[in-house]
Amino acid sequence: MTGQNAAVAEGMATPGAANLAQNSTTLPPIGGAANRDAVNPWLIAITVTLATFMELLDTAIANVSLPHIAGGLACSYDEATWVLTSYLVANAVVLPLSAWLSRVFGRKRYYMICVALFTLSSALCGMAPNLGMLIFFRVLQGIGGGGLAPVEQAILVDTFPPHKRAAAFALYSMAIVTAPALGPPLGGWITDSFSWRWVFLINIPIGLISLFLSNRLVHDSDAFKKEVSEARSAGKLRIDGFGIFLVALGFAFLEVVLDRGEREEWFDSTFICVFFGVAMISLLTALWWELRHPDPVVEVRLLKERNFAIANILYFVFGFVLFGSTVMIPQMLQSLMGYTATDAGLVLGPGAFVIVVLAPFVVRLLPKIGAKRMIGFGLTVLGCAMWYFSTFDTLTDYKHEAWARALQGFGLAFLFVPVSQVAYSRLPKNKNNKASSLTNLFRNQGGSFGIAFVTTMLARRAQYHQSVLVETINNTDPATQSAITSMSQTFAMNGAPQGTADAMAKGQIYQMVQDQSHMLAFIDCFYALGWVAFCAATLAFFIVNVAPAPKPEEPAH
Questions:
Q1: Is position 71 within any domain?
Q2: 447/465 Cα distance (integer angstroms)
Q3: Residue pLDDT, tens place only, 273-307
Q4: Domain range spanning residue 384?
Q5: Which of 292, 382, 426, 501 is the most exposed place for a label (fewest CB within 10 A)?
Q6: 193 lies in the same domain as 323
Q7: Which residue, 109, 166, 170, 250, is CA-closest to 421?
Q8: Which helix (H) or strand (E) holds 193?
């Protein structure tokens, strides 16, 4: 199984990386040491993408395995959901702090600490004897996983020159889109064929490979070393304990609110009200504090730059629509259309495949078309894809579902790379590290808000549609009575006693009402996500034009 999972990650990265790297040149030594051999930047890109892919894949797999975890540890499903919540809380705490932590420890050292902690805690999760220990180990895993994506993005920005940066982000986009698509079917297969413990144990060989490659290939850039050296000499790396406390407390409590809100009936729950209040007070105080601190843990002042602020809003929308829809689609297919987890994963697959195929073409088109047009086009296509999903019913076949997901992938393919270019287009190079923490924070929070939104809207709209349908389908309605009589006769002809046949017919009608009300709720959610994408497309008009990055002059021969 471990070999297969590594092959999946390799297969995801290799085709795009090979195409994207056709015209790339080997950069000078990353660390600047005279005795260090030159390192091909694409080896670095694939190395750091491997760990991020592993982390995102593990998150998606764990969602599917919850019922098996609950059964294996003799706890209720609701108690088992803390396995997810604990990870998300730890992840949300570390994300905004990752830039500061990488400056304190050194980017390479901090990145390897994150990979090592994620790998070790994965092994501990796989051997956890009870739910309490599993939740504790998941917190450790979230602390390790939270630093991977932002540090990887900062490494890519520093490793690749501006004119090749889009290609690097194309590889990164493959990982963050492909992993959530592969997670559900892979998680279902692992838990059905082996045990839920292998959901965590498969990370061990991948983590060890990532550690080995990172140690050999990844080095802190000269610009980053200079930035840290200057900060140390100016005394700016002193610990901002109050800022760290406020940021950690605010995002931890906010993540609990988003993850547990629907289960606890949102603001009807004292628990949610208290956590939301603490989160808002902490985050607002943190904003005030960080704006006045000379070297803030989270440099909110970067959002004063228009392109960077718009890019972060687009990252939020990207996460909101992508993760919201990725949660909804398998749920719709499995609960209403009888799909298995593997079959539902095959519907998600075409979207990831389209992104992998289009990534090299997006990189080539970007300098010709421009980021603004590509972002507007991508969001428009994404909105159309969501509205296409909203035309489905319980009889829609696989072909139409897969085409809808492929259309969604087509829109997403034109988003991530241009948005990444816009984000870093007008920032000084020494701000890349702190910028990567913010961009990943917005994308992560977008995903959390998107999942909370669709979960809540599905429950509320299903209740609404059921109440409307029940008003029409009742004992006085001739069509309802005719349907019950026809079904009852069918059950009676198959051997059921008349009283039982009548009850079975009414149960069948009730199940049809349930299915249709839930299907209408899914349609409402897809329609709403489409509106989110269309509204976000208007932001492209406010982006300051990004000039194509100049290529370095070829040396004379």
A1: yes
A2: 26
A3: 999 999 999 999 988 888 887 777 788 888 888 88
A4: 316-545
A5: 292
A6: no
A7: 166
A8: helix 162-193
